[in-house]
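Need the bound structure for magnesium ion, inputs here:
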Amino acid sequence: MTAEIIVVTSGKGGVGKTTTSASLATGLAMAGKKVAVIDFDVGLRNLDLIMGCERRVVYDFINVVHGEATLKQSLIKDKRHDNLYVLAASQTRDKDALTQEGVEKVLDGLSEDGFDYVVCDSPAGIEKGAHLAMYFADHAVVVVNPEVSSVRDSDRILGLLASKTRRAERGEGAITQHLLLTRYNPARVAIGEMLSVKDVEEILGINVVGVIPESENVLTASNNGIPVIVDANSLAGQAYSDTVARILGEERPLRFIDVPKKGFLQRVFGG
Amino acid sequence: MGILDFLKRKPEPTATVARERLRIIVAQERSTRGAPDYLPMMRNELLEVIKKYVHVDIEAININLERDSGHEILELSVTLPDGKSAGKAGSEAKTG
Ligand SMILES: Nc1ncnc2c1ncn2[C@@H]1O[C@H](COP(=O)(O)OP(=O)(O)OP(=O)(O)O)[C@@H](O)[C@H]1O
Ligand SMILES: [Mg+2]
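Answer from helper R.:
Posting the output first, comments after.
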């Protein structure tokens, strides 16, 4: 059994990769899969905070790569989901600490341990860290915001995914590309201030796998160290649940992409 | 133009502006992806040459790299300014 490797990447920084990685990994675990989520952002560990396990990090990714700790010792078990594990990024400033062979060794180890999915949270940019995060991937989630520089960068990344991965190099068939539009604000789209889902799909020539609305609950979730997908009442959480289901092959209509219609009471009393 | 038209005229939504800019730059970057690094410099030098004859802006020069089976075609198109076309050239001159 080999684990399916999913990279979460974007090119541009700060668009929601770590937020997405945390919710995707948690969502897959909620669907009964055995999941590991790895922080590839060497030197800028963050995923541990979003997953709420920052105080339980003993060994990290680089420790495993260097043989200073075993995978078992380094994987941090999630508090809420038995089949979910986090592998933290190293805080070292040595960007060369991560090697292709090292990454391969860790991914092979996770496959041997019976993991179904490994989610790789890529650093921003197109340098070595981002390259290593995508190299072994079977699937990619490209996170994009409805904003010019993010859209342009995601096109670069889509190009790299099609050519600079092991699958592409070996001619094993293209990796599955999923475009995830996040921080979407339907009200601003409606008045022509923000690129629409359709605009982004047309420019990039690929359909979205999900649309995550801009939501205050994302900050609340990160404050608490609980991935937003766990908050089933939040729109962002529900949108992430839909997205995970689609990645698992289910068909679900897009939600939260239109300005909410005013309810009866609102129409009567205004507001 | 009547005063009503003037009042009714809305500025173009910024999302539309963003969409059109992205369409152009994404198409251009896709077509020159994996192309030699000297393309932007060559574009600049071509601009200098063209400027000797007609005043154009760097944005007027479009470079496209087309890959056919076996060979590549570098296509340059220069959009000349309205009315001020050099000699008998039309509004667009292409070299293949
Ligand atoms: N749907 C959303 N609504 C509101 N805020 C969001 C949403 N998604 C992400 N954010 C916020 O955007 C910021 C950046 O998110 P995140 O850290 O996930 O991005 P990143 O792509 O991992 O960044 P980096 O490139 O630095 O790794 C965070 O403050 C996060 O709370
Ligand atoms: Mg991040």
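Comments: The first strand of chain B starts at residue 61 and ends at 67. DSSP finds three helices and three strands in chain B.
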